[in-house]
Predict the structure.
Amino acid sequence: MTGRSGSPFEPRSERVTKANTTTFPSAIADHVVRGRAAANVLLVVGASLFIALAAQIAVPLPFTPVPMTMQPLAVLLIGVVLGSNRGAATAMLYLLEGFSGLPVFAQGHGGAVWAMAATAGFLWSYPLAAWVAGRFSELNWGATTLRAVAGMLAALAVIYIGGWSWLSILSTPAAAFAAGVAPFLLADIVKVAIAAALLPYAHRLIHSIHR
């Protein structure tokens, strides 16, 4: 006799297997969204506000038009937790909010002008970066520290490539690297590594709940 997931009638080996393959996105889908469109929308809207709040943690640097912010880390975490599609949708909503004039970008900025500003390449890369982070999460890469770091660094690379490419158009590739990559690379890698190192512990917590 087969019961529902986690029921006493389900073989223990089957429950353990399901627990070991549970990811953040699947847990969100099963316990938060549960097929409800309204919950899906509220989740994406709330997550976009999380990115907006992270953007306000910004440190202007005198030698570059790109401030140091918590935006990239927030985008990656949203992708990891919500998954590829919801993560990308959240990032796209965040851009729509900012380009429409809401003060959600770094230092309270907003407006259509930021779609072509020096930081535009970073902004436009967020949906793809969130999708990449979410896809790795859906593949259960967050279960081990090494794979979690690799997955989040791959998504971070998407942001850097987008920002560097746009700055290269506005200046030169070397100047773009000096202004948009070099000042932030070490700090972002450290932040991502710390966040990714915590993911396996969070995964184990999810697994214990699903057993």
User: Anything to note?
Assistant: The chain has nine helices and two strands. Residues 1-10, 12-19 have pLDDT under 50 and may be disordered. Strands lie at 58-59, 68-69.
